[in-house]
Amino acid sequence: MRTDAVIKQEGFVALSKMLDLVEAERFITLIKRDNSDYTEWRKTLWENESIASLSSKAMESWEQNNPK
Length: 68
Known about the structure:
The protein is mostly helical.
């Protein structure tokens, strides 16, 4: 199991791949400020997306971020 420090570091790297530094820090601030339950929030996060659509978006993102 990875340590909390490693998870934090890798999480920030993941955010930085999609957002610039200011946006990544803003995202963290928004999440910390929000008192909502992440577990409940994620249940409806993809409710209007099909598995095929999510898979397609994930593959496209992977290809863009991992060129051959």
